[in-house]
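User: I'm putting together notes for a lab meeting next week and I want to include a structural view of one of the chains we've been expressing. I don't have a solved structure, so I'd like a prediction I can at least talk through. The sequence is below, exactly as it appears in our construct file.
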Amino acid sequence: MRISLKSLLLTSVLTFATTAFAADLLTVNVPFTFTAMGQTFPAGHYDIAMNSNHCIVTLYSTTDATKRLTWLVRPADARNAAGVVTFNELGPNYTLKNIQVGERITPNLDTRTNRGVSATTSISNQ
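Assistant: Thanks for the context. Below is the predicted structure for the 126-residue chain, given as structure tokens.
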């Protein structure tokens, strides 16, 4: 009986750890080229990872290790999706505006004024 209780506890801990990790690692498909912090990022799949203290988020390409950026996050109102990446559109160009994971969000990453922004596009991981 003791062995099965240990097994049950270990399984519960592993399930919880996997669930917690999955909630902190999201993938989005961005269908257009965009800029962020002066770098150009190609269209494609991007992982968004939250650190264990929930204070730093990292966006990185799943195909190009050089395409990676990290920011501090602050509290935000929860959204329907686990993760949302928002872009400002200016003509045919897209600039990363912010990343929200659960109840944490980056500051406004598009340092330009909103003058000339024609639309805002949000992509969720759902």
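A couple of points you could mention at the meeting. Residues 25-124 form one domain. Confidence is low (pLDDT under 50) at residues 1-22.

User: Perfect, that's what I needed.
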